[in-house]
From TrEMBL:
Taxonomic placement: Bacteria, Bacillati, Actinomycetota, Actinomycetes, Kitasatosporales
InterPro entries, alphabetized: SCP2_sterol-bd_dom (IPR003033), SCP2_sterol-bd_dom_sf (IPR036527)
Record domain SCP2: where: 69-147
Name of the protein in question: SCP-2 sterol transfer family protein
Amino acid sequence: MAAADDLDLETLDFGSVGPAEFAGIVKGLPTRRIAELMGGPQRRRVLDEVFGRMHTLFKPDAAAGKDALIRWRITAADGGADDVYETHIGGGTCTVTPERTDREPQLSLTMAAPEFLRLVSGNASGPTLFFTRKLKLKGDIRLAGSLTYYFDIPKP
């Protein structure tokens, strides 16, 4: 495979890229390049793919007994509309809603797209993003600290 920064990300079929390969691509890209990718027309396609795979990376045994709604807000750098997704963990499943609902989340996470991609690909730590103010939390901070245990996050 070509170096991540040399890939034609605008035409890359993210649906054909496995989680470990995706983690490697994100790891090899400078923040500037991720911001360009996520500022273009492919932004929603990439986010849909990431959230669409969450249920396949979910570890039901690790989340046994948990019932929580998490709202993810991925901010737009260009002043455009933010993207909002919700994940519900409960009953041994993880379901995703690709929009904000009227339900009240136990946890809301807000971050820019480069930080989001680094976090979900295992290339960034939630606590580090939080303490550097690149991740904003509202709600159950203990739930935020345990989220990584509920998913099989790739190792870049």
